[in-house]
Design goal:
By secondary structure, the chain is mainly alpha-helical. Helix content is 74%, strand content 4%. The strands form two sheets. The protein has a two-stranded antiparallel ribbon with strand order 1-2. Strands 3-4 form a two-stranded antiparallel sheet. A hairpin with a 2-residue loop joins strand 1 (145-146) and strand 2 (149-150). Helix 2 packs antiparallel against helix 3, helix 5 (114-134) crosses helix 9 (258-279) and helix 6 (151-174) crosses helix 8 (215-243). The longest helix is centred in the last third of the chain and has 29 residues, at 215-243.
Length: 282
């Protein structure tokens, strides 16, 4: 089977699983992403481990898991019950002990390059666990729903998939001018522009199909997906290029690893969360 069809089947399967989980229960969705967080952290620490860099793989995975679980409980149980600012502050307050325990843990490891080890360990749960935890803020009990599905989260995922797929397919067929050759030699201007166009068209369609979300919100959501989703892809490509690898893993046929599949979300999710948090339109 060709890589294209494997990529398509894997992508559609993931779309079905995520939409089904969102329809039946936000807790199921949170559980699926807890699994993704753990796999992503383990994958990340495995990739960067070398003779000169030895992150605290077990502690980093545990810290990221704790951060994700606590954040999820806050979004699901406390939203609407406590002051709005605490919803965002509690997860960040938790980062304080998790971060500084990284220093203490390194003391007992007797490894070389402790500063690099500390930095890469903290980077793992900041880069992977924190952004993915924000997704649960959009699937809690008090969010705007249509036919049982959380509107903003489904819209966010849909625009992300549409942008990625449109840019990939058009760039693969018609791309000639490199977009950022130094980091991502396969990404082209033609593909990127096509992805931008179809994403804004899709956002315009959502405006007419979905009630309860105003035009500016769909426009901003599409813009955030385009800007930070693109840079999320480039960041992951930069990491892989610095490690001289093609894919972050092989767990997802046609896509590679967890980081390969969720790279756009890792960088765009915090900005989407911040915008809608300030707008108070979860």
């Amino acid at each position: 089977m060709s890589n294209f069809w494997m990529r398509t089947i894997t992508g559609l399967s993931m779309v079905f699983i995520l939409l089904a989980s969102l329809y039946f229960s936000g807790w199921i969705f949170a559980g699926i992403f807890l699994f993704i967080v753990i796999l992503g952290l383990w994958e990340f620490y495995g990739l960067i481990t070398s003779e000169t860099c030895q992150p605290q793989k077990y502690y980093g995975t545990l810290a990221g898991t704790i951060l994700y679980i606590v954040s999820t409980l806050v979004y699901f149980r406390l939203y609407g019950l406590i002051d709005k600012l605490w919803i965002i502050f509690i997860p960040f307050l938790l980062l304080i002990p998790l971060f500084f325990l990284t220093f203490i843990s390194e003391i007992y490891r007797k490894k070389s390059n402790p500063l690099i080890n500390i930095a890469t360990t903290a980077l793992g749960f900041l880069y992977i666990a924190l952004p993915l935890s924000f997704l649960n803020a959009f699937s809690g009990p008090d969010v705007i729903r249509i036919h049982g599905l959380p509107v903003i989260l489904v819209g966010y995922f849909s625009l992300t998939w549409i942008y990625d797929t449109g840019a990939y397919l058009y760039g693969k067929q018609f791309g000639k001018h490199k977009f950022f050759e130094r980091i991502s030699p396969k990404k082209t201007w033609e593909g990127t522009i096509a992805g931008v166009a179809i994403t804004y068209l899709a956002a315009s369609g959502f405006l007419f199909l979905v009630k309860g979300i105003i035009a500016v919100d769909w426009l901003v959501l599409a813009t955030l997906v385009i800007i930070f989703g693109t840079h999320g892809d480039l960041v992951e490509s930069l990491i892989k290029r610095s490690l001289n690898i093609k894919d972050s893993g092989k767990i997802l046929p046609g896509h590679g690893g967890i980081l390969d599949r969720f790279d756009t979300i890792l960088l765009s999710a915090p900005f989407v969360f911040l915008y809608f948090f300030l707008r108070n339109t979860f």
